[in-house]
Amino acid sequence: MPPGKDALPPGGRWARISRPVRSKAKKFLAWLFSGKSEKASHLLILPASFWLSFFLVIPIVLLLVLSLAQRGPYGTVIWHPTLDNFRRAFTPLYIPIVARTLLYCGAAAVICLLLGYPTAYFLSFYAGEWRDTFLILLMIPFWTSALVSIYSWIIILGRDGLMNSVLTGIGLLHTPLDVLNTPFSVILGLVYFYLPFMILPLYSSLEKIPKQYMEASYDLGAGAFQTFLKVTLPLSLPGVFAGFILTFVPCLGDFLTAEFLGGPRTYLIGNLIENQFLMAQDWPFGAALTAVLLGAMLVGLYYYQKLEAAEIA
Amino acid sequence: AGEGDKHEVNFFNWSTYIAKDTLPRFSLETGIVVNYSVFSDEEEMFAKLRSGALGYDLIVATDYMIPRLKALNLIDPYPTGALKNTGDIDPKFRNTPYDPDNAYTVPYLWGTTGIGFNKKHISKRPTSWWDLWDPKYKGKISMLDNARDCVGIALLMKGCPQTTDSDAAFKAAEQLLISQKPLLKQYSSSTYVDSLINGEVYLAMAWSGDVIQAARENPELDYVIPKEGSYIWVDNMCLVKGSRHRADTLRLVDYLIEGKVAAEIANFVRYGSPNAAAKPYLDKSLLDDPRVFPPPSVLKKLQFYAILPPDLAQTWIDTWSDVKAA
Amino acid sequence: MKNKWLSFYAAAFYAFLYMPLSVMFFFSFNNARRNVLWRGFTFKWYGVLLHDAGLLGALLTSLKIAILSSLLASALGLLASYALVCRPPRFGRAFYSSWLNAPLLVPEIVMGVGLLSFFVRIGVPLNFWTLACAHAMIALPYTIGSIRARLLSLKSSQLEEAAMDLGADQWEAFIRVTLPLAKPAIVSGALLAFTISFEDFVTSFFIAGIGVVTMPIKVYSMMKFGVTPEINALSCCLLLTTLVFLLSARMLRRTPNS
Amino acid sequence: MIFPVEPLLDLQGLEKSFGGTQVLKGISLRVGHGEFLTLLGPSGCGKTTTLRIIAGFENADRGQVLLAGKNVTRLAPYYRDIHTVFQHYALFPHYDVFGNVAFGLRLKKMKESDIKERVLSSLDLVRLKGLENRRPSQLSGGQMQRVALARALAGRPPLLLLDEPLGALDLKLRKEMQLELKHIQRRLGISFIYVTHDQEEAMTMSDRVAVFNAGRIEQIGAPQEIYENPKTAFVADFIGAANILSAEILSSSRDSLKIKIEGNVEADIPAQNGWAQASGAVQLALRPERVTVSADRGQPAETGWLHIKGALAETVYLGNARQVILRTSSGEKTIVSSMSAEAFASLGTDIGGAALAKFRIKDLVLLGNSEKNT
Amino acid sequence: MIFPVEPLLDLQGLEKSFGGTQVLKGISLRVGHGEFLTLLGPSGCGKTTTLRIIAGFENADRGQVLLAGKNVTRLAPYYRDIHTVFQHYALFPHYDVFGNVAFGLRLKKMKESDIKERVLSSLDLVRLKGLENRRPSQLSGGQMQRVALARALAGRPPLLLLDEPLGALDLKLRKEMQLELKHIQRRLGISFIYVTHDQEEAMTMSDRVAVFNAGRIEQIGAPQEIYENPKTAFVADFIGAANILSAEILSSSRDSLKIKIEGNVEADIPAQNGWAQASGAVQLALRPERVTVSADRGQPAETGWLHIKGALAETVYLGNARQVILRTSSGEKTIVSSMSAEAFASLGTDIGGAALAKFRIKDLVLLGNSEKNT
Ligand SMILES: Nc1ncnc2c1ncn2[C@@H]1O[C@H](COP(=O)(O)OP(=O)(O)OP(=O)(O)O)[C@@H](O)[C@H]1O
Ligand SMILES: Nc1ncnc2c1ncn2[C@@H]1O[C@H](COP(=O)(O)OP(=O)(O)OP(=O)(O)O)[C@@H](O)[C@H]1O
Ligand SMILES: [Mg+2]
Ligand SMILES: [Mg+2]
Asked: With an 8 Å Cβ cutoff, are A221 and D55 in contact?
C-alpha cells in the first residue's frame, strides 16, 4: 500500500523515540506518583501518617501511659503502675453517665439523620445550579464561635425567650416551657453543632445515585415514597452510616454543649473526662476514661472504614 | 536569652479582670510591653501551666490554687524586698493560711461567696444558705461549679469545721448537696450571672464581684452574705517559675499594688481591693457598699479557706466529683 | 424537576440553621454588656469593635491559622487520598483508611492536654505554627473524605492514562489533569478544614502560645465578666462579608453561562 | 396500518423543548395491539424523549398521549402500566436477580407464591433460570440485558418500551438477542416500542418502522415499504445505502414523462403513482444492489434499463459482496454499486477504466423533499 | 505479509492474567510500517488488554513488545512514541479543543508557534477547524471523536492505537468516520492498530485482521483471505454469517475424496489444499450468499453443485437482500441463505413447502478445530 504524500519515511524517524531528558527531581516525582512500586504509594501517604503520629498518636500514647500511673497529692502523678484507674472507670457510679451519654449522643445522631436526610436529598436532586452555594451556606454558621451560637440559643430557648413568647403568642402554650438546661436543650445543641457532619456524607452518597434507578422504579409502578424506601434509601445507606459515625463519635467527646446548655442532671462522659483533667486534677483517671472511650470508638471506626471500603469496591 | 533582653511581661489573667488603661499607662511610663493572655477558667489555666506551658511570667490565681501551684513547683517566691509597695497591703490579707509568710503571693483583689438573687422574682431577701434549698424556687437555683465553695458551704451548714476529716461530715455534706440537685437549674461559675439577669435563675450561689458588676446594668440583681457566714477568697499575683522577665514582672506587680492603680482596678471590676493605700481613691459607692466591704459584724463571720493537707483536699474534690456524677 | 414540599422543608431547615445567627445579629445592637436581655437599640458596639485592637487581632490570628491549617490539611489530604484511591498500596490499605480517620475519635480535651505535654516534653516552643499544625491534624480526616470521593469518580475516566499516553509522566499527569479536575473537592475540603480550625476552642486554648489569642479563646475568656454584643457585632461583620463575597462570586460565575 | 379497534397507544402532536431548543416538533403515531414498532433515527433526533414522554418521565409541552383510549398525558409514570427496558439496564444493585424481577410484583401486593412462580417463568422466558441469586454486578452485559427484560415483562404490561436495549452488546450477541426479543414479543403478544439507531435491527425486527429526523417523523410504515419507497432523501439514505440522483423533468404526458438524470442521461418513464404531480428538478433514489457496473464497451442499454457512463473509481471488499464505486463522466458524482462475487468477477475493467452503471428504470424511486427543519 | 524491513511493532508471546484468570494466552503478531491492522473479537477476548500492553499501561506477565526492533516491554507509556484514541475519547474537560490537541506538544516543549501550526493542521485533518475554543462538553459525539483523533495525531506518532473509536457513534456517523479514518491513515502513512468487535468495520478498513478468541489469535490475514478461507468454525461464524455443516470423510484418494454432509448428502470433492490431511468427522463452512434456495421439484444437481433437501422455514426481509432459512429433512439443522430480490422472486414455494438449498462444492470451506481454550 503506497504511503501518501506527507507520509513519514518508514523506520527513518526512529532516531527520535522521544525521550525528553528529565531531571532527577522530576524522575523522582514521576516514580512517586506512578504507584508502580509499593514504596511509592506508602511514601505518598507518609506525610499524612507522619502528621498523625506526630501530632496525635505520640501525645495520646504519652497520655495513655498516664492511665497506668497513680494520682498523688495536689494532682501530682506517681509513677507506680496499677490498673486501679480502669477498675474505677467501670464502677457502677458511672454507669448512669455512660447510659445517659449513649442516649443523648444516639438521639442527637438520629435526629441529625432525620433532619439532615431531606436536606441532603434536596441538595443532591433539586438544588440545581444553587447546589454549591447551599453547601457552603451549610458551613458558614459555624464560622461564628460556638459560644456565640450558644448564647443565641439561650436567648431563644429562655423562659421569656423567643420560642416561648412565640408559642404562647399563638396560644399553643399557656405557661412558658422551661427548656434551658434540660436534656432537650443539650440534645438540641448537639444536633445543631453536628448537623453538617451528617449532611455532607449523606449528600455525597446521594448524588452518586444515578437518576435512572429511580425512574426504573417509577416505571415498575413504585410511587415516589415507595421508590424512596426501596431504592433511594438502601442505595444511600453507606452515607447514612458514615454520617452517623461522624456525628455520634464527636458527640461522645463533646463537653461544652452540656456545660452551657445542660443542667445538673445532664452530665456526660465528655464532662466527666474534662472534670478529671481540670477540676479533679486526676489525670491518670482521666486518661483511663479516655482509653476506654477510645477503645469503644475504635470499634465504631472499624465499621465506618469497612463501609467505606465497600463503597470504593 | 535573646528574648529575655526585651522589656516585656507575659501576664496570664481573666479577660477584663483589670481596668482598661492600666496596662497601657504602665507600658507608657516604663516602656515595658505587657502581653495580656487570657483564660476562661482557672482550672484550665492551671492544667496548662502544669503541663509545662512556658513563657508566662505573672499569673492571677485564687488562694485555693496556691498550695497546688507550690506542690507542683510552678511558682517562685518573691525575692525579699523586691517590692516597695507591699507595705500598703491591708494586714488582714497578710500571713494568710494559704501563704503564712507572704512568700509566694501578693493579693490582687478579694471577694466573698454569697447568694446572688433577682429582686424581681424574689419577694423577701434571702438570708440563709438554706434558701438555696427552698423547694419554692425549684428549678430556679444555680450553684457555683467548684468543690471548695459547694463542699465548703455544705460543711459549714452542717456545722462542721472546715478542717474536719470525719467521713461522716463529708457524707453528710455530700447528701446535702445531692438532695439539692433536683431543685437546681445548673452548676455554673461563669454564665450564672447571665441566668440571673434574664430570669432563668432567681437564686444563685455567687461571687460578690460578679453580681455587683452585673448589678450596674441590671438593678434587679442583689447580693447577700448569709447569716451562717461564708468565705473570703483572694485572687493573688504569683511569679511563674522559670520566668525570663523577673525584674520587669516585679515592676509590674509593684505598680499594680500602688494605691491609685489598685483603686482604679477595684473601681472597674467592683471587687474589694486588699490594698489599704487604695481606700482614698475608691469610688464612694464602692467603699460604702456593705456587699463589697462588709461591716465588721459580717466580717467576723467570714473566714479564709483553711489550707488543707493533700489527702483532705482530695477528699473535698472526690466528694464534689461524686456529687456531680450522682 | 421541582418538589414543592422538599423545597419548603429545605427553606425551613436553613431557617433553623440561621435562626441563632439572626438572633446574634439583632443582639449586636443590644445596649447592654451582658448580652442576654434586650436593653434597647444602639450602634455603639460596632464603634467599640473598630477600636478594639485586641478583638480584631484575635480575628486576624484566627483567620491566619484557619487558612494556614486548611492549606496544610488539603495538601496532606490530597497526597494521601491520591495514593489511597489512584495508587492503592497492596498492603495496609484497610489499615490506612481507618488510621487516617483517627482524629475523629479523640475527645478535644484529651487532644489539647496531650499535645501540650508533648510539645513541652520535646521542647517545641508553643506558637502560631504549632497551633496551625495541630488544627491541620484535626481537619485531616475531613479533607481526605471530601477529596477521596472526587478522585474515585475521576479514576473511572481514563484521563490520567490519556495524559501519559501523550507523553506526560505520572507527575505531569497529576499536575496537569488530576489536580485541576479535583479542585472543587479540594476547595470544599479546605472549607471544612477552615471551619473546624476557625471554631476550635479547647485544643486551641491548650496549645496557644504566649500572645496567640484566637477568636474562640478570646470569646470564652469573656464569659466570666459577660460576653458583650461586641462579639456579635464582629461575628455579624464576618458573616455578612462572607455572604456578600459568596453571592457575588456566584453571580460572577453565572454571567458567562447566560 | 388500519386500526379496526382503537389503537393501544395514540400519540397526538407531541411537542417538547429543552431550554429553548425544540426537540420534538409534533410527533403523532398510533401503535396497535401486539405490534412491534421501531423508532429509528440518528442520534439526537428525539427518540428517547418520545419514549420518556410515553413512559411519563417527561411532560410534553403540547400534544396528548392516549393509552387504550384513556388520556394519560399528565399521569405519573407509576400509574401507567407500561414498562421500560433502559439502555443501561438500570438494574437495582442492591437486589439480586430475583429481587429485581420481583420488584414490580411485590408492589402489586401479589402473593409471594405467585410472585415466585411469575418471576421464575419470566426468567425462564429470557433463559436465565438458575441465576436468581446473582447480583447484577456478577452478570455479563448480555445477562444484565436479559434480567432487565425479564423485570419489565414480569408485570405482563400490554406495552413495552425498549431504548436501544442492545446498544451496549457486541455484534454477535446483538444478533442473538434480536431474534430472542422478536420471539418473546410474538409469544406474549405484547406491543413493543423499540428505539434504535441501527437500521438493520429495525428492518429485521419490526412490523412497522417510524423514521425520525430532527424531532419529526419523516416516514412510517412496514420495513419493506420504507426500504422500497422511501419518501425522502433522508429516509432513502438512512435506511440502507442509496445513491441519490438529481434529475429534471423535461416533459410529462398523461402516461409517461421524459426526464434527464445527472444532466446527461435522458429517459422516458411510465408515470407511476406519485410521478404525475412531479415537475421541475427532483431527486431519485437508487439502491446500490440494483446497480451493476461493467466495463463500458459502448453497448446500448436494453429497454427498461439505463446506463450512466463514468470511470471505475474504487472497489471495496465487503465479504458477502463487493462495493464498486463509479465516478460519472461529469465527475462531481459517484454512484455506488454492490455486486455479488460472480458479477464482480465479470467486471472486466479495473480502477480508472471506463465503465458504466446499469440499472432498471423501475428501480428509480422518486423522492419528495423532507420538510424544512428549523 | 512479509517484512522486508524489520516490522514496526513485534509482539512475541504476550501473556497476561488478572487475578488468576488468564486473559491473554500468548499473543504474537507483527505490524508493518503504514499498515492498518484490526484486532477483531467478541467482548472480553483480550483486545483492549493487548492494546494496553502495547501502549504500556499494563505489563505483560510473559512475552515481549518490540518497537522498531527496540525492546520496550518494560518502558513507561510516556517514553513510547505511540498514541492512543480511547473508546470514550478521554478528552480533558478542563482544556478546550486547542488545549487538548496541544497537550502532548506542550509536553515536548515545542515552540508555541510550531504548536499552533501543528494543532491547526491536525484539526484541519479531521475537519474541525474553527472549533479550537469549544469545550469538550460543547461537542457532539462525532466531534469529540475527531478531537481525540487530532490529539493523538498531533504528535505524528508512527503507530496509532484505536480502541473501538467508533463504538459510541450511530451507524451513519460510524460509516462516515470509517472512511475518514481510512483516508487519514493512508495520507499520513501511519500504522494503525484498530480494535473493534464489528466485523463489517474490520472488513472494510483493514489491511489485515487478527481474529481474537478468548485470549488467542485464531487467525490473522487479509480480510478476503479470512472471509473466504476461515481456519476455524469460530472465525467463519464471527466474520459474517456462515452455515457450519458437519461432514464425515468416507474415503480419500490422492486427488479426490468422498464425504457425507449432514448425514445424508454424499459428494466427491477434488482434494484441494488442506483437505488431504483431513479424515473422520470434519466441519464445513458455507456462506449464506453462496446458497440459493428454490422449490424442490426433484431436479437433479448439476455437476459441481450440491443439493440439501428440506422445508422452507422462514424468510426475513433485509432490504438489500432476503434471508431464507431452510430446515433440513433430518430436521435438527437449519441452513441460511441470503438471496437477491430477483432470486427470491423466483423462489416458487412458501413457508413449509418442500425446498432445497443449492451451492457449489467449491464454496465449501474445510474448517480446523480452534485450539481448546482452557
Ligand atoms: N434533559 C435534557 N435537557 C436538555 N436537553 C436534552 C435533555 N434530554 C435530551 N436533550 C436533547 O434533546 C435532543 C434529543 O435527545 P434524545 O435523547 O431524545 O435523542 P435520541 O434520539 O435518543 O438520541 P440517541 O440516539 O443518542 O439516544 C438531544 O439534542 C439532547 O441533547
Ligand atoms: N483491570 C482488570 N482487572 C481484572 N480483570 C480485567 C481487567 N481488565 C480486563 N479484565 C478482564 O480481562 C478480560 C479481557 O478484557 P478486555 O477489555 O481486554 O476485553 P476486550 O476484548 O477489550 O472486550 P471489549 O470488546 O468488551 O472491550 C475481560 O474478561 C475482563 O473482565
Ligand atoms: Mg436515546
Ligand atoms: Mg475493550
From this structure: no
What is the rounded CA–CA span in Å between residue E225 and residue E1? 12
Nearest to A222 among D55, D56, D107 (CB): D107
- Check CB contact of D141 with chain E, cutoff 8 Å: yes
Q: What is the dihedral of CA C151, C154, C155, C157, to 10 degrees?
A: 180
β pairing state of D9-18 and D62-67: antiparallel
| Partners of residue A32 in chain E, C-beta under 8 Å | none
Size (chain D), residues? 374
Q: Residues D150, D127: contact at Cβ < 8 Å?
A: no
Do the Cβ atoms of B199 and A160 come within 8 Å?
Answer: yes
Helix H or strand E segment including D209: strand D208-213
Residue D335 has pLDDT above 60, yes or no: yes
- B40–C213 C-beta distance less than 8 A: no
In the predicted structure, residue C105 carries a pLDDT above the cut 80: no
| Dist CA C187 CA B40 (whole Å) | 34
Q: Is the pLDDT of residue B3 over 90?
A: no
Which residues neighbour B128 within 8 Å (Cβ) at sequence distance 6 or greater? B226, B227, B228
- Chains in contact with D, where contact means 3 or more Cβ–Cβ distances below 8 Å, are A, E
How far, rounded to the nearest angstrom, does the alpha carbon of residue E31 sit from its chain's CA centroid?
A: 15
- Amino acid code (one letter) for E247: A
d(CA D160, CA D193): 6
Please give the mean pLDDT across all residues of chain C: 88
| Cβ atoms of D301 and D358 closer than 8 Å | yes
pTM of the model: 0.86
Coil, helix or strand at residue D136: helix
Residues in chain E: 374
The reply to whether residue C166 touches residue E103, judged by beta carbons under 8 angstroms, is: yes
- E54: cell is 502495547
Amino acid identity of residue D294, one-letter, is S
Q: Which has more confidence, D3 or E342? A: E342
d(C-alpha D360, C-alpha D226), whole Å: 19
| Test mutation, A8, A16, A23, A31, chain E, max E CBs within 10 A | A8
Going from the Cα of D168 to the center of ligand 2, the distance in angstroms, rounded, reads: 15
Q: Which residues contact residue A39 at a Cβ distance below 8 angstroms, ignoring those fewer than 6 apart?
A: none
What are the helix (H) ranges across chain C?
Answer: 4-27, 44-51, 53-86, 93-99, 108-122, 128-156, 159-165, 170-173, 179-199, 202-207, 215-221, 229-257
What integer is the mean pLDDT of E281-290? 89
Q: Which of A232-246, A271-285, D262-276 has the lowest mean pLDDT?
A: D262-276
- Nearest ligand 1 atom to the CA of D50 is 18
Evaluate: CB of D49 within 6 angstroms of ligand 1. yes
Partners of residue C36 in chain B, C-beta under 8 Å: 194, 197-198
Report the nearest atom of ligand 2 relative to the CA of E45: 21
Backbone region of residue D291 per phi and psi (left: phi > 0; alpha: psi in -120 to 50; beta: other values): beta
Number of A/C CB contacts below 8 angstroms equals 289
Is E287's Cβ below 8 Å from some Cβ in D?
A: yes
The DSSP result for A86-119, as a single string, is HHHHTSGGGHHHHHHHHHHHHHHHHHHHHHHHHH
Least Cα distance to B145 among B113, B119, B122 occurs for: B113
> CA neighbours within 13 Å on the CB side: how many for B126?
30
DSSP per-residue letters across B69-96: HHHTT-EEPPPTT--SGGGGB-GGGSSB
Least trusted range by pLDDT, from A6-20, B25-39, D234-248, E162-176: A6-20
Chains B and D touch (3+ CB pairs under 8 A): no
Q: How far is C13 from chain B (nearest CA, A)?
A: 28
Res. D1: pLDDT tops 60:
no
